[in-house]
Amino acid sequence: MSNSHRIILGVTGGIAAYKAAELTRLLVKYQYDVQVVMTESATKFVAPLTFQALSGKEVLWSLWSDSSKNGMSHIETSRKSKLIIIAPASANFIAKLTHGFSDDLLSSICLARTCPIAVAPAMNMHMWSNPATQRNINQLKKDGVIFFGPDSGEQACGDIGLGRMIESEELLESINDYFTPKILKNKKILITSGGTIEMIDDVRGIANLSSGQMGSAIAHSALSMGAKVTLVTSSKNKNSKHIQTIYVKNVSEMHKEVMGHAGSQDIFISVAAISDFTPEKILKGKIKKDGKNFTLKLKPTIDILSDVSKNYKKLFKVGFAAESENLIENAKKKLISKNLDLVVANLVHESMGLEDAKVTLLDKKDIIDLPKSNKINLSKRILEEIAGRIN
Ligand SMILES: Cc1cc2nc3c(=O)[nH]c(=O)nc-3n(C[C@H](O)[C@H](O)[C@H](O)COP(=O)(O)O)c2cc1C
Questions:
Q1: Does the beta carbon of 41 lie inside 6 Å of ligand 1?
Q2: Closest approach atom of ligand 1 to CA 123
Q3: Is ligand 1 within 6 A of the CB of residue 93?
Q4: What b-and-e string marks burial along 235-260, b requiring 16 or more CB atoms within 10 Å of the CB?
Q5: Which end of the chain has fewer CB atoms at under 10 Å, N or C?
Q6: What is the distance in A from the centroid of ligand 1 to the CA of 13?
């Protein structure tokens, strides 16, 4: 499911326009095709050039400097789009939207729209609670306009109350949610991600290059597909507040958390790069360099995936196999020896710590090569394969 939905991001005049710049970056990262349209007031807060650089497209903001062939941007822009999102939506713009004004490009596009529209209000708490604004909001809801937020909290003017625009990450999540079929509705998914660190002494450890990006991408995609997600991770990637995130450092902490949660799950996806060895004992303090060789004795760690497999037979179990050679052969061995339902195999140099990855899926019947792609797209494809097998 590659994501190339075209979105119009309408930016209106308010301090929160700076958050729209971050939203643009995130939408582009998530493969949306973003056309930014600004009101004239919005251009006083953030320059169109910022949005142009982030979206890779000319920003539209004037009815009268239309670069389209027939001068009909105000009619045609929404025809090519799947959603208009106004973020931030000023009190003024909300009023205009309610009453069908079309005295600038963005309001004209909204009036002539042929796609759904969502707004993320951003205004002072008194502007928000004013009966005029509340009347407008109620009317817009009746008209089928989708609302994302607002949030409560400290405002740019110093007041504390309802009216803040929700954060760009949350907006992205709401937009992803809007576009994603709920193929994992109410399924409980437990995911591990990141690397582990096995301490040698008080300051040093055995770690690996895993960034936790793949696990994080799977967790967020699963969330937008309707799953209830628990993530056991060592990585400090910023995750949605709707993902239950449990931070761990080493194999034994990860094992304890996984075994504690696995019993109530439908699916277990082991993405974490888990150390195979740990020092026999952790040395006290910081080992001093004295010019002599130093020998470190290692013992094998507990195998979390095998333990889950043994103890939770009904779980749908997915393992990641990061190999440096003989990819398919080693992945098949893992599928059988750990009694898994699916293995996601990848060559270390094609995935670990990188933005993009190339993976092959294996189950007892099929081998499916997925084209090289960014980890967000890959996470969706992997979850679609899992959903197809459990539903
Ligand atoms: C510094 C400053 C901050 C403002 N912040 C907001 C805001 O957060 N929300 C809002 O609704 N209006 C805000 N306004 C007022 C709007 O910019 C004003 O109503 C403007 O006409 C909105 O135009 P637009 O809806 O066409 O973008 C602010 C004005 C100034 C000068």
A1: yes
A2: 9
A3: yes
A4: bebebbeebebbebbbbeebbebbee
A5: C
A6: 4
Are the C-beta atoms of residues 69 and 42 closer than 8 Å to each other? no
Give the closest residue (by CA) to ligand 1 atom 31.
14
Q: Which CATH superfamily is domain 188-390 in?
A: CoaB-like (3.40.50.10300)
Residue type, 177: D
Q: Are 344 and 320 in contact (CB under 8 A)?
A: yes
1 — pLDDT class (breaks 50, 70, 90): very low
Quote the tokens at residue 283: 């040395």
CATH 3.40.50.1950 residue spans of the chain: 6-179
* Mutate-to-test residue for ligand 1 from 40, 41, 97, 165, highest number of ligand atoms within 8 A of CB: 41
Contact between 318 and 384 under an 8 Å Cβ cutoff? The reply is no
In this structure, whether the domain defined by 6-179 belongs to CATH 3.40.50.1950 is answered with: yes
Query: Is any atom of ligand 1 closer than 6 Å to the C-beta of 111?
Result: no
- What is the distance in A from the centroid of ligand 1 to the CA of 93? 9
CA of 128 to the centre of ligand 1 (A): 12
SS3 content of the chain, % helix, strand, coil (to 5): 35, 25, 40
Q: How many residues are there in the chain?
A: 391
Instruction: Kindly state if the Cβ of 15 falls inside 6 Å of ligand 1.
Output: yes
- 173-223 pLDDT, tens digit per residue, is 999 999 999 999 999 999 999 999 999 999 999 999 888 999 999 999 999
Active-site residue 157, yes or no?
A: yes
Our answer on whether the CB atom of 122 is closer than 6 Å to any ligand 1 atom is: yes
CA 302 to chain centre: 31
Which residue in the list 49, 156, 157, 160 is annotated as catalytic? Answer: 157
How far is the C-alpha of 338 from the C-alpha of 260, rounded, in Å?
A: 19
| In the block, residue with structure tokens 């994080």 | 216
Q: How far apart are CA 95 and CA 134, in angstroms?
A: 10
pLDDT tens string 244-303: 999 999 999 999 999 999 999 999 999 999 999 999 999 999 999 899 999 999 999 999
Indicate whether residue 10 lines ligand 1 (CB < 6 A): no
Cβ–ligand 1 distance for 121 under 6 Å, the answer: no
Q: Which part of the chain has CATH 3.40.50.10300? A: 188-390
> What is the pTM (predicted TM-score) of this model?
0.83
